[in-house]
Amino acid sequence: MQFFCPCVSFSDELIAMRQLPPLAALRAFEAIARTGSVTRAAEELCRSHGAISRHLRLLQEHAGAALFEKEGTGLRLTEAGAAFHASVRTAFDQLEAAYAQLARDAQAPGLHVACSATFAMRWLVPQLAVFYRSHPHIRIRLSMTSAREMRHEGADLIIAWDLSTYAEADRRRAIELAPVHFGAVCTPAYARRRPANRARIAHEYTASAWNQWEALTGQPVALGETLAFPHTHLCIEAALSGLGVALVEQRLIARELKEGLLVAPHGFVPFEGGLRAVPAAGRALPAQAGVFIEWMRGALAAVPA
Question: With a threshold of 0.70, does the pTM exceed it?
Fold first, then answer.
């Protein structure tokens, strides 16, 4: 039995066909290599033991190399088989991921958005119900990223306010969404302390925020020790616990301000740049990205600064 079809050339310009073994043989080989058993591979693929064995035998005969050797009652990959399996496994993983993405895209147009966990939990996710009511056929896929390493991870858009660590090309592509307003916030009881006795709660990866605040306001509101945390939501929790004064964007603590859990004795001031959406490089934005961006602009503007 021949596994490969010879390419018939009608001219020098005819492109050769791919020289690939049948997918059924590759599936049998991959399943045996992964499970270590013809029996288990047959059960997984819903084929008979004999059918899987024949696929394997024909593949080995055509390749001219033994892919497995006996080990007790099971099989073990040979050196050649292990090398081949590494390539087959990678190809199958990529094919599986691509097919899953194809199925997701076919079910509903989607947009992949990356943002900080704090922004997602405290603003974006609670607002998505409103977005879905207006745009029920668009689904948003969220990825969490951080100020330490803002990265696309395949996302169509990254939502961020501090682009100081981004490449110049990324900053030029950034799409403005809304101004950001930061305030030094703490509990009402903590606000009664003198600045010299207040601890400063800082974000480990956006330390320049406090420098911007003091340059804009001239208010040294916390001159005591500095407590640093790697995520904004931890800074907020530290402030709520009475550990110090945190510098936070107003939208992220709207509920705490309304309920009086946190106060901003010196108010909120706009920071340079504002909240922006950074498109992924090297590919066109999906059509639904424009819809999402315009919705975000309107929703962000609805929160008075």
Answer: no
